[in-house]
Structures are given as C-alpha cells and as structure tokens.
Specification:
By secondary structure, the chain is of the alpha/beta class. Helices cover 42% and strands 15% of the residues. It has a six-stranded parallel beta sheet with strand order 3-4-2-1-5-6, sandwiched between helices. The protein starts with 12 loop residues before the first strand and ends in an 11-residue tail after the last helix. The N terminus is likely disordered. It is an enzyme of class 2 (transferase).
Length: 242
C-alpha cells in the first residue's frame, strides 16, 4: 500500500456495512457462501484503497449478533472466511503498518476463532499507520448494554462515582474505545438503514447508500462516497452561516 498522506478535509474514519453478498451470488446461480468469498476480495481492495486515499481508519461490519439466525452452513462459511483472511493476509497487513481490532462479543465463538482474533490483534498491536476494525459477532445495542454493565459494576464497587459518568466515560467502555467516531458510514446493496451498526458512534456520521452489491465494490465507489462526504456541510447541531 502506498501512503499518500491524510486528507485535510476528511473523512478520518469510514465505516462500511458490507451488504449484498448473497444477492450477488444468487444472481449468478451460486450459493450464498460464494458471494461471501468474493466479498473478501472487495475487503482487500477497500483496505488498499483506504490507505492510498489517506483515510487512516476503516471499520467493516463482518458478522452481526443477528446473523446467528442464518443457516448453520452460511454461519460456518462466514467464520471460515475470517480464518482464511487472517491466515492469508495477517503478515502482509502487519508489515504494511496496519493495526487490526475485532469489535464485538468473544463469547459464543469457537476457541480456535478466538485464538485467531487474539493473534491478529497481538501481531499488529504496535502498528499505527492504518487502523482496520472488523465488527464480528457485533451488535450496536449489545455493545451499549455491555458498556452499561461494565459502568454499573464499577459504580457498585465504588470505583466510579455516578456523577462522573458522562459521554467520554461511556465511550471509553465501548468496543471502539480510543478510536475516532466514524465521519462517514457507507452501506452497499441499496438498503438504507444502519442495521444495529455503531449506533452510539455514528450519531453525527454522514450516511451514503450505494446500489452496488458488496462484491462489486471498488476504489471508484469509495472515492465517490468520499466525494459526496466532502460536498456536505457538517453542522453538528449548529448553524451553517456560509
């Protein structure tokens, strides 16, 4: 990956809901798992493109807490893709200065999958050139509930006074602690909803919905979404006097 420097007018953090793998495969008469496999190639492309375009932080929605309701063979295929992605790409990503973080629950995952997640995070822990976050076994409401439980436990122990709890303290208990909130959330496939993704963090994110299915997502789509972001006025509840 070529480092062209950070953009001055953002976005600093892009989050993507990678939707449409199943429909892409169905349109070609193939099983849904084939669409997910092709989606991994789009992941590789968007990581390269994000770094080249000077976006320092990227979060991808890989597997939600609601995805457990899908057929068992599809769930296992999704788990297998994470395994293969780490096995195939970890060393090159680490050498390129990419730091990997997996957001979401660890409980419910197999021991070997937890080991793979731990290995990816440990191997890249000291990198800081590009931040790649994968939301896996993740749900925004679940993340908020887990944060509330942690804060409540600290308050009960006397470690955290109730009147000290504010937005900063709350954000520090989320899976994304120490990461900037996303400036831009992209969803592919034409669907127009957040689907329980980064509900707290995306409070003031710009939303861009694209008709392209995820396996067909490429650099040109990312550049187009960034261009749309830069054309918007971000007021954060204030008034735009321009």
């Amino acid at each position: 990956m070529t480092d062209t420097g950070r953009t001055e007018d953002g976005p600093r953090h892009i989050a993507i809901i990678m939707d449409g793998n199943g429909r892409w495969a169905k349109a070609r008469g193939r099983p849904r798992a084939f669409g997910h496999q092709q989606g991994v190639e789009a992941v590789r492309a968007v990581v390269r493109s994000g770094a080249d375009l000077g976006v320092p932080c990227l979060t991808l929605f890989g597997f939600s807490t609601e995805n457990w309701s899908r057929p068992a063979e599809e769930v296992e295929a999704l788990f297998g893709l994470l395994r293969r992605f780490v096995d195939a790409d970890l060393e090159s990503l680490a050498d390129d200065g990419v730091r990997i973080r997996i957001l979401g629950r660890r409980d419910g995952l197999s021991d070997d999958l937890v080991e793979i997640i731990d290995r990816a995070e440990t191997r890249t822990a000291h990198n800081s050139r590009f931040f790649l976050n994968i939301a896996f076994n993740y749900g925004g409401r679940d993340e908020i509930v887990r944060a509330v439980r942690q804060i409540a436990a600290e308050a009960v122990r006397g470690d955290l006074p109730a009147d000290a709890i504010d937005e900063r303290i709350f954000a520090a208990h989320l899976d994304s602690a120490d990461l900037p909130d996303p400036d831009l959330v992209i969803r592919t496939s034409g669907e127009q909803r957040l689907s329980n993704f980064l509900l707290w963090q995306a409070a003031y994110a710009e939303l861009v919905f694209l008709d392209v299915l995820w396996p067909d997502f490429g650099r040109e789509h990312l550049e187009g979404a960034i261009g749309e972001f830069r054309r918007r006025r971000r007021r954060f509840g204030g008034v735009d006097d321009r």
